[in-house]
Specification:
heterodimer; A: alpha/beta; six-stranded mixed β-sheet; 12 strands; 28% strand; B: mainly beta; eleven-stranded mixed β-sheet; 22 strands
Chain lengths: 243, 306
């Protein structure tokens, strides 16, 4: 289980120079083995929340627990070893490092060829075409994103977080990707899947949806509970923005 | 007291991947003298007349053969210039493993300057691997100069590696490519401390259908300095691509000056050059995969120089 206790996080707005509160005394629990989707308006704090769990951001105050252990002060790589995986919304490129290299690092062991192929196939890439390609500018944004997802799957972490995995991916691949997440979660029952997404198709697959807005947990429930509220919530957010 | 046989073994492994006497033809030069030579029916190695060095002649049609010609210096105060000529016949496919290793534990300068001439016959393919390595307290310099002439349809793949220990190196390579000849150059360099590298590569694409790719990758650490001058001259209907990527760290200095020059309306030439520090998001990504920051940095550098 992941537990966030009274997390407050602020960051300096580069344009105004002022410090803005991104997450405001937020507390929540995420049960082990659940398929969770975090959704909400842009700037609401979803990515910050996910990065705080991974250790990429440090909260101003509050605590993060993984299976009862306080991991607030653990560095990123120790959280990874403790069982948290993270897929970036905008993954970096690595000149000189091949897809095979990256997946092998992710797995933390020697990976059989057939297994490497499985990871790539699961994200809709033909292994023969990609395994020995460098993760550099020769890859399109969509290809890079799918490789990013494959690396996270290769970590086999008990907790996997994906920040907008659908962004930059074409429609055909998106359908396949949603299927990948669904079957992955079904087949690996004990794993916790946390996906930040705005896509109804992904939201509708979740066990539970968390609605994050204005730095707070605005609502949580099943997709059936939350999806009808999103439109009206978006309209309210618009009015708040105008004020 | 230094164990010279261990030093020798280590240097040969580093510069030529040699763990024992190689298969095929070889010539090992150690402290300015011959430490072993073997010619084969297809590959003949002889002394060069009038100057220190060797002449390597590869017979027409020689395929899947190799010749190792490493040079090692284990004594301080040895400075030498060696002239090696290679004549590769027609329709060959051979590997040349050159390389130089210097161990200088004394106070005097040790230096090896290799002047190479490589003539590749029609439709032949040569892979030329040259590794430079040095160690010890004394000055260790290398100044390789190489001229390559490619006949019609010939291919040369040059792989140069220098991953540490050489105090100063000045490299100069000139390649003249005939019709449908292909040039592939991969250069990988890492410097540290106060080491300096000055690397100049010029490819003259003289023949129609000729092509060249120069791929230079480097890492500069400490107070080291690197200068790269890769140049392609398109003198015919040809294609050339120069790519230089460098990672700069600490207080190092890197200059990358790629040049493309078209002297024919059908020449298509591209150059790309980038110098920068290791990107923070690369480190973060590898940390999310379980590496600490130091391990992540090493993996990124190893990847670039692989």
């Amino acid at each position: 289980m992941i537990r966030l206790e009274n997390i407050t996080y602020s960051a300096v707005n580069e344009e105004t120079g002022k410090r803005n509160t991104i997450l405001d005394d937020l507390s929540l629990d995420i049960e082990t083995g659940k398929y969770i989707v975090i959704t909400g308006p842009n700037g609401g704090g979803k990515t910050s929340l996910a990065k705080i769990i991974m250790g990429l951001y440090t909260p101003d105050s509050g605590k993060v627990f993984l299976d009862g252990e306080d991991i607030t002060d653990k560095p990123i790589h120790e959280r990874a070893k403790a069982g948290i995986g993270f897929g970036f919304q905008h993954p970096p490129r690595f000149k000189g490092m091949t897809v095979r290299d990256l997946i092998t690092i992710a797995a933390g062991r020697k990976v059989r060829h057939a297994e490497l192929c499985e990871y790539l196939t699961s994200v809709g890439l033909c292994a023969a075409d990609y395994l020995n390609r460098e993760v550099d500018t020769s890859l399109s944004g969509g290809e890079l994103k799918r490789i990013e997802i494959a690396t996270v799957l290769a970590t086999d972490s008990p907790v996997m977080i994906f920040d907008e995995p659908e962004a930059g991916i074409d429609l055909w691949s998106f359908h396949r990707l949603t299927e990948t997440f669904r079957t992955f979660h079904q087949n690996k029952g004990g794993k916790t899947l946390i996906i930040i997404s705005h896509q109804e198709r992904i939201i509708s697959q979740a066990d539970e949806v968390l609605l994050i807005a204005g730095g707070k947990l605005s609502d949580r429930g099943t997709p059936g509970d939350i999806l009808p509220k999103i439109d009206s919530f978006a309209a309210r957010s618009c009015r708040y923005d105008k004020n | 007291m230094e164990d010279k046989s261990l030093i020798r073994k280590n240097l040969l492994e580093k510069v030529a991947d040699l763990h024992s006497v190689p298969d095929g033809a070889y010539n090992i030069r150690e402290n300015s003298t011959s430490a072993g030579r073997r010619s084969t029916d297809a590959i003949k190695i002889e002394n060069k007349e009038g100057a220190p060095g060797i002449v390597v002649t590869v017979a027409d049609g020689t395929k899947n053969k190799s010749v190792h010609i490493p040079v090692i210096i284990t004594e301080t105060g040895i400075t030498e210039t060696v002239y090696n000529d290679f004549f590769i016949g027609r329709d060959c496919d051979v590997l040349i493993v050159a390389g130089c290793g210097i161990h200088n534990s004394g106070e005097e300068k040790s230096a090896h300057d290799g002047v190479h001439s490589l003539k590749v016959g029609e439709n032949s393919r040569v892979r030329y691997v040259e590794k430079h390595y040095a160690e010890g307290e004394g000055s260790r310099t290398m100044e390789p100069k190489m001229t390559v002439d490619l006949a019609e349809g010939a291919t040369v793949e040059i792989e140069t590696v220098q991953l540490g220990g050489v105090s100063d190196s000045v490299r100069e390579t000139t390649i003249n490519a005939g019709d449908n000849a292909t040039v592939l150059i991969t250069e990988r360099i890492m410097t540290d401390g106060v080491e300096t590298v000055d690397s100049k590569t010029t490819v003259n694409l003289n023949g129609n259908g000729s092509s060249a790719r120069i791929n230079s990758r480097s890492v500069a650490r400490g107070d080291s300095k690197q200068i790269f001058y890769p140049a392609i001259n398109g003198n015919a209907d040809c294609f050339g691509h120069v790519q230089c990527d460098s990672i700069i760290m600490d207080r190092a200095n890197v200059r990358s000056i790629p040049e493309i020059c078209a002297n024919d309306v059908n020449a298509r030439l591209i150059h790309e050059a980038a110098i920068g520090r290791i990107a923070g998001d690369q480190i973060l990504k590898l940390q999310t995969l379980g590496l600490d920051a130091e391990e992540a940095e090493e993996r990124i550098l190893a990847g670039l120089l692989k």
